[in-house]
Amino acid sequence: MGSVYNWQIGRSMEFPHGQASPEEQFAFVININRCIGCQTCTMACKSTWTFSKGQEHMWWTNVETKPSGGYPKHWDVKTLDKLSEANPEGMTWAESEAKGRRNPYGEYQGRTIFEAPDTVARGGSPNRVLGYLPADEEWGSPNIFEDTPSHGPSAPMDFGKGEELDDQGSKHKAWFFYLARLCNHCSYPACVAACPRTAIYKRPEDGVVLVDQSECRGYRKCVEACPYKKVMYRGTTRTSEKCIACYPRIEGNDPEAPGVPLETRCMAACIGQVRMQGLVKVDEDNVWINDRYNPLYYLIHVARVALPLYPQFGTEPNGYYIPPRWVPIAYLEQMFGPDVEAAIARYRNPDRELLAVLQLFRRSNQIIARYDIEEGPKVYETERFGEKFEMYNDTIIGFNRAGDEIIRTQVEEPVFVRPAKHANSI
Amino acid sequence: MKFEFDPLLIEQTVAGAIHGDRKLEARFHRLVDPLYRMEQGPEREKLFHQGYLAFFTKMGLETPLTRLLLEHPILDERIGRCIARRAPRVKDETAELLVKREIEVPTPSDRTLRVRISPTSLISPDVFEPRMRREIFHIADMVDDRFAYRREQIEGLPPRQNLIRDRYRVLWDVAIEGRLTRRELGDARLTESLRKAVRKVFGFQDEVRACDTFENFFGLDKPTHGQLFEFARSGANEAGVGDAGESSTGGGPGAPCPLCGFPTFDWFLFPISPDPKTLAQITQAHPQWTPESGACRQCAEIYAAHGQAAPGAALISNQ
């Protein structure tokens, strides 16, 4: 067992392979506050990659209604239950005095899935990774419990009332939210750790995690190990398959924009404009290198509004979420770690730069490598949650990897007034 | 009896059975891994199937099913083939008897037992066996001459047919649970729920009579189809949803109305000479209905209202 550094848990941890890092890392941010659960991303992925025989139950990307829904059914509850067994003293976090890029959320003091060898296998050897193999029928209902709120006589999960959405103190009894999921292309993938044939690997150029179909022999150890349950078994080929991060698009091989990295199909199809995907630079410990004007770097390390999904699993997932404002903090802390309350506070009252960067979501199919802001006039001022809020009509400009401007937009929504001569006409 | 297991069921059962056991996994993969190098196609599929089947047999994964079948030697005598298919979910597991059509006296080769099994079940016999044992018991009764099972044409309106079917099902389950209990294979919770089911489907009986009904059928060592069916049928008559021409009028409290099918406690008493317009309206919608079948007050009022409106409607349509 080797030792690797995981910045999301702020410490080194055990991992079956040695420390390694890609030249760039595939990553994405999803703004849960704006997701309407339309499943367009789900269908974009399905119709591109998993429409063949034997893939009927496969949804590399899906949107589930939390807290009740899940694909496979109750995937996170089951993994958390197992992790709780391994952490009888609780999955706790310690405050760090100096938080930086190496430990922005403090230090996780519990055991990760790599540090909690599950149970001793029947053959006598412990598993490499804590996990479970979902039964066949758990994959059968990808959108089970859609729009099911947390509270109610028939609802098993009651985490209390939701949080305040305004400063009038009103709270909803019932709440739910949509969690869009795909493979997190983790820096320390559990599927890679568990594969007995090293058939799964992380690409050195962009950190995309792939299953080598010629090497896979259908052990399903990856399916069992992945805590996010994003590796799936295909009966017709008897191998495992997973999200490939639409790598031909990432590589710039799509005819839409030759030579320039494009966002994945699920990102590009998002009609709610809740997603942004990119490539970030990391050092030898997989800690993000300061890239101040990369929008993902800004959202995760500067504004710190986007957080990793279940960081305590220890895989260092590269999918980040802007947590929903109306959900009880205790539930969100379990899902996104200890920084969630602060992240919501920052998102609820965005500063000038954050407001501008949020305009970049889904403004271009090309990956935005860098942004620039041209300052504009103040157009609005108010007080929210006891704090001053100012809105400036800044212009934000996005550039692709080649340095070409690909998007220019303003904070204030443009208003077009219909000329009088067109009144009552279409 | 010849056995045929669905290849998909075999494959998923083997995968579940070996998962986590390093030694078994290693042995299994030594067998099948070379097949991955072959081109996809029928030959490769055949060899994969043979590999999985070999492990399935070697590990005795069919045992939970065959052991249940051995509890009833008559099954082997009377049924020529058993096909085991994959059930997508545990709750979809069933056993069915398939008999060739239009054969008056079927031979074993005309009979097939089809069981649907979830892949997780054969590796968890403790959960699988109690449930499937009851399914198999029904099949054993069906092929037993003493039980003399036969398909019945239930006369009357759909609510009556449904009621008789429900009562027959409950009585048969009770008769099976009683026999299993005497063999020390019973389930106290299931027995209790069957006791409640008897109370429910024989709603017209008071508690003492329903209890007697349950005890009578629970205690039968050699029940017959005729006994079960006749009791279910006579019970239906007693509840007031009898055959056309039978003497019962209206229904017992809580019995379903033969027109709308909803349980009612408010039966309408039709006069000796009912209004012919109302009768015409009811028999138009329910040709087999007679005043003796009864109807709930609400249905009677609705059809009476329709009857009153009918002449006007006829006049308009004739213009």
Can you describe what's shown?
- The complex is a heterodimer of chains A (426) and B (319).
- Chain A has ten helices and 19 strands.
- Chain A folds into two domains: 350 residues, Alpha-Beta Plaits (2-Layer Sandwich); 57 residues, no CATH class.
- Chain A is α+β, with helices and mostly antiparallel strands.
- In chain A, the strands form eight sheets. A four-stranded mixed beta sheet of chain A has the order 12-3-14-13. A three-stranded antiparallel beta sheet of chain A has the order 15-18-19.
- Chain B is an alpha/beta fold.
- In chain B, 53% of the residues lie in helices and 8% in strands.
- Chain B contains twelve helices and six strands.
- Chain B has a four-stranded mixed beta sheet. In chain B, strands 5-6 form a two-stranded antiparallel ribbon.
- In chain B, helix 1 crosses helix 3, helix 4 packs parallel to helix 6 and helix 7 crosses helix 10.
- Chain B is elongated.
- In chain B, 32% of the residues are buried.
- The interface between A and B is medium-sized, with 21 and 23 residues.
